[in-house]
Design brief:
With 214 residues, this protein is an alpha+beta fold. It has three domains: 9-43, no CATH class; 46-123, Ubiquitin-like (UB roll); 131-210, [2Fe-2S]-binding domain (DNA polymerase, domain 1, Orthogonal Bundle). It contains eight helices and five strands; from the N terminus they run H-H-E-E-H-E-E-E-H-H-H-H-H. It has helices at 11-17, 23-34, 68-75, 120-123, 131-138, 148-163, 182-188, 199-210, and strands spanning 46-53, 56-63, 94-97, 100-103, 116-118.
Amino acid sequence: MSTPPQLSLSRRDVLKLGAGSATSMVIPTVVAEAQGNTAGARAPVTAEVAFEVNGKPRTLQLDTRVTLLDALREHLHLTGTKKGCDHGQCGACTVLVDGRRINACLTLAVMHPGAKITTIEGLGAPDKLHPMQAAFVKHDGYQCGYCTPGQICSAVAVLQEVRDNIPSHVTDDLGARATLSADEIRERMSGNICRCGAYSNIVEAIEDVGGTRA
């Protein structure tokens, strides 16, 4: 049995191996370089991804590490979707992908070929607001407005989840139809943080659009 080659890694190589989200791309290269074999070691840096954004087909040539959030903001210039924490903790980057809400900062753009993506710009326009946008204005569901695009996209998805009878963590009876109570709204919207504290107004706006506000 042949003896496996011994790797001689420098401190810099070790640091490369722990370089966050790029680790999966760096490790094969570092190991190959340490073995003295660099031919074909690097994975492709870019890839083409085609998807539908706000009803329009878009094709981008992207670094495979680019997040969906950065693809939307930096490459398509759809800056309504906000970068808040960039760690999936605040919900400011919420968009709809094939009708389901996701944190755009936590997913790579190349993971969504053929997807139908809707950002806040695709929900409505100033002269033709989406009902949820109009409700946020009516009920003053925002203050600084930074989290508002993500809040609205998430709220639209919440109503669809209820229509699809998808339960939440506070749903009492999993055999019954899902309801749009205030407790359900607060639980389903808990991933969207409003640092200004407009939560009660946001609940009122969602109840209004959902037809449950007295």
